[in-house]
Design brief:
single chain, 170 residues, alpha+beta, 7 helices, 51% helix, 12% strand
């Protein structure tokens, strides 16, 4: 099973076990302390293990939707990358840093946790475009695009629902 499928199944297991997609409720259920920090300027959030205690720190100045996204992203680090964290910390200045594999995987996890496959697919079937769906669901368009990419790999032929071809400029 490829890594993206494992990430998808990890998110589904959490959702089923705790009957929620709320990253704050999931963090609490997993024994992770979430702390809101007013002293973060550009930093959106970070994940850190301190004396075997797991923490997610979130910038309290962010909008609630972005705080939820940051929390989901940091949960991804906890569940996927805890081994790396024995000697380091994951700090998020830019959530959609696709240059780093751990960041990309945490973004995939956040998209799988926060966005239901059936809801996203239904929106496309009803004729909404990605901008409209992101607005309707109250999520960042980049998160939705990650979800659409993963959904397309797993399930639906989303191109038949009006998604542009990647070679449209040729």
């Amino acid at each position: 099973m490829i890594k993206e499928q494992k990430i998808y199944h990890k998110a589904l297991e959490l959702i089923k076990k705790y009957e929620t997609r709320d990253p704050f409720q999931l963090a609490e259920a997993l024994g992770i302390t979430v702390m809101f920090r007013e002293d973060f300027k550009k930093l959106k959030g970070m994940y850190k293990v301190i004396l075997r205690n797991r923490y997610i720190f979130i910038n309290s100045n962010l909008e609630p939707e972005m705080q939820a996204l940051v929390c989901a992203h940091e949960l991804g680090h906890d569940l996927l990358h805890r081994v790396f964290l024995k000697s380091s910390v994951f700090q998020e200045f830019v959530l959609y840093d696709m240059k780093s594999k751990p960041e990309y995987e945490a973004n995939i996890f956040a998209s799988e946790l926060l966005l239901d496959d059936d809801v996203v697919y239904s929106c496309f079937k009803e004729g909404y475009d990605v901008y409209q769906i992101a607005t309707l669901l109250g999520v960042d368009i980049n998160l939705l695009l990650i979800k659409v990419h993963e959904l397309h790999k797993r399930k639906a032929d989303l191109k038949s629902l009006g998604l542009p071809n990647s070679n449209f400029l040729k």
